[in-house]
């Protein structure tokens, strides 16, 4: 892909392209202890103040629960035609299983109805990391019964919203929540070690396929996808040990979840036999079909590439990252390398799987330290990031990749997980003391881009 920016036009992406913003329940809704909602693992993980930067908690967040009408008007005003939201499992089923919370069901009806009224096509994510705490007490994603609990949750959602919602996303970034939450312990629920990681991976690959089958069965004409975080993995040098280390990271980050979903089973490589580590070796034939679903679309979530070198001290992968700062390459204030060519290559790579029929970019965005000056947020770096990455999408699309839409991450600054409230990714600035929203110049840029 050439990195020279020609003048981008939204119409170049085609008439029916889905232009959206994405949000997630735990990051935006707030009202965490209200209206019958049960606690999620993020409420509990943030309680002691040590796990989240700045001691942030998702209790109030952006107060989207009460302000959704105004916020959806903003989405509309910025020119988008689609809106991606997630459903808080513990708002629907406070204990994760058992009794349904009618107030929770009603809340998402109101949000979905408002979207429809404003002609914003809703895309509903079923799991964006906020597991009900009651289920975590029983082991969460490491417990074999999680699949039964998850299937029930999906069934309740499909029965409640299936007549209104056509577009469904089963999971948000399985690698992120299993690795950060169940191996490294930096995200909720804060569990560590491969003995937690592997079962959580396997139950997750079952969940993504079974969840999709339930939606297929209960929602006529549903358009079903699931999302994955992808990062191009670049070896630090030509040395064999760096190349092999990069390959191991690639298997974990880019292949572990999508390949079972596409019917290929878990990745099998002579040098890194994950399947065996999951004690599935002899039984794998049983699982390949269970893990497979014919997804209508694959959601690509892309933020950065990674440069990887061999490191014997790191368990399992024996690899570590060479940070963008150390390499002195352009990066966001998150420390993530900015590299739109890598995004382009990532899209092409995912498209090269035969079983991928359609692609939606379900998240892409950046955090830069924004400064308000006289009520204006001139976030030129974020605009630049979007322009370069949209250029990559267009280049891939023009070469025949069937890309149906692009969702910016995210509508407004929100609870950025372990980073708390400081890492601001929004097109709209939020003052968390007053809940005042201020559209950033990146938001205005989208408005102009989408209306031209
Ligand atoms: C997640 C979002 C998150 C964003 C920025 C994605 O991994 O889906 O919830 O806020 O990245 O870190």
Please tag this protein with its features.
17 helices, 16% strand, alpha/beta, 15 strands, three-stranded mixed sheet, 452 residues, TIM Barrel, binds beta-D-glucopyranose, eight-stranded parallel beta barrel
Describe the protein's architecture and organization.
This protein is an alpha/beta fold and 452 residues long. The chain has one domain (10-451): TIM Barrel (Alpha-Beta Barrel), CATH 3.20.20. The chain has 17 helices and 15 strands. The chain has helices at residues 25-28, 41-45, 64-77, 89-92, 102-117, 133-136, 146-161, 174-182, 194-218, 240-255, 258-261, 274-277, 284-291, 324-327, 340-351, 380-398, 441-451; strands spanning 18-22, 82-86, 121-127, 167-171, 223-230, 233-235, 297-302, 306-310, 319-321, 359-363, 372-373, 376-377, 403-409, 428-431, 436-439. Strands 1-2-3-4-5-7-10-13 form an 8-stranded parallel β-barrel, surrounded by 5 helices. Strand 8 (306-310) and strand 9 (319-321) form a beta hairpin. The longest helix has 25 residues, at 194-218. The structure holds beta-D-glucopyranose (BGC). Beta-D-glucopyranose (BGC) binds at residues 24, 27, 172-173, 176, 229, 301, 363, 409, 416, 425.
Write the layout of secondary structure elements.
Elements: E1 18-22, H1 25-28, H2 41-45, H3 64-77, E2 82-86, H4 89-92, H5 102-117, E3 121-127, H6 133-136, H7 146-161, E4 167-171, H8 174-182, H9 194-218, E5 223-230, E6 233-235, H10 240-255, H11 258-261, H12 274-277, H13 284-291, E7 297-302, E8 306-310, E9 319-321, H14 324-327, H15 340-351, E10 359-363, E11 372-373, E12 376-377, H16 380-398, E13 403-409, E14 428-431, E15 436-439, H17 441-451
Parallel strand pairs: 1-2, 1-13, 2-3, 3-4, 4-5, 5-7, 6-8, 7-10, 10-13
Antiparallel strand pairs: 8-9, 11-12, 14-15
Helix pairs in contact: 3-5, 7-9, 8-9, 15-16
The protein binds beta-D-glucopyranose (BGC).
The site of beta-D-glucopyranose has 11 residues, from loops.
């Amino acid at each position: 892909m050439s990195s020279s920016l020609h003048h981008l036009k939204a119409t170049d992406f085609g008439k029916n392209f889905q232009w959206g913003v994405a949000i997630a329940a735990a990051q935006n809704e707030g009202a965490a202890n209200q209206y019958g909602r049960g606690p999620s693992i993020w409420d509990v993980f943030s309680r002691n103040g040590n796990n989240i930067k700045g001691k942030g908690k998702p209790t109030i967040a952006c107060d989207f629960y009460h302000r959704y009408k105004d916020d959806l008007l903003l989405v509309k005003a910025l020119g988008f035609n689609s809106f991606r939201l997630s459903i808080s499992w513990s708002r629907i089923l406070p204990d994760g299983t058992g009794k349904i919370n009618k107030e929770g069901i009603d809340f998402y009806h109101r949000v979905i109805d408002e979207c429809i009224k404003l002609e914003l096509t809703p895309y509903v994510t079923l799991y964006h990391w906020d597991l009900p705490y009651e289920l975590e007490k029983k082991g969460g994603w490491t417990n074999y019964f999680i699949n039964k609990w998850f299937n029930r949750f999906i069934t309740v959602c499909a029965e409640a919203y299936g007549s209104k919602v056509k577009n469904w996303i089963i999971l948000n970034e399985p690698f992120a929540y299993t690795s950060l939450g169940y191996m490294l312990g930096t995200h909720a629920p804060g569990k560590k070690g491969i003995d937690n990681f592997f079962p959580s991976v396997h139950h997750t690959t079952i969940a993504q396929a079974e969840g999709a089958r339930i939606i297929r069965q209960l929602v006529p004409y549903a358009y079903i996808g699931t999302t994955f975080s992808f990062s191009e993995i670049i070896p630090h040098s030509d040395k064999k040990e760096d190349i092999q280390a990069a390959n191991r990271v690639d298997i974990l980050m880019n292949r572990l979840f999508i390949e079972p979903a596409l019917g290929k089973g878990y990745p099998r490589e002579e040098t890194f036999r994950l399947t065996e580590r999951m004690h599935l070796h002899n039984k794998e034939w049983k699982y390949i079909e269970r893990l497979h679903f014919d997804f209508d679309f694959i959601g690509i979530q892309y933020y950065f590439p990674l440069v990887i070198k061999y490191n014997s001290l790191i368990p399992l992968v024996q690899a570590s990252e060479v940070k963008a700062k150390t390499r002195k390459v352009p990066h966001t204030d998150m420390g993530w390398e900015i590299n739109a060519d890598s995004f382009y290559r990532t899209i092409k790579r995912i498209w090269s799987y035969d079983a991928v029929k359609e692609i939606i970019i379900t998240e892409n965005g950046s955090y830069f330290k924004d400064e308000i000056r006289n009520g204006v947020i001139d976030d030129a770096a974020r605009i630049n990031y979007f322009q370069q990455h949209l250029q990559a999408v267009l280049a891939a699309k023009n070469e025949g990749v069937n890309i149906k839409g692009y969702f910016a991450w995210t509508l407004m600054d929100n609870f950025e997980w372990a980073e708390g409230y400081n890492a601001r990714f929004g097109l709209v600035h939020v003052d968390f003391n007053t809940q005042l929203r201020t559209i950033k110049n990146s938001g205005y840029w989208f408005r102009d881009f989408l209306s031209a």
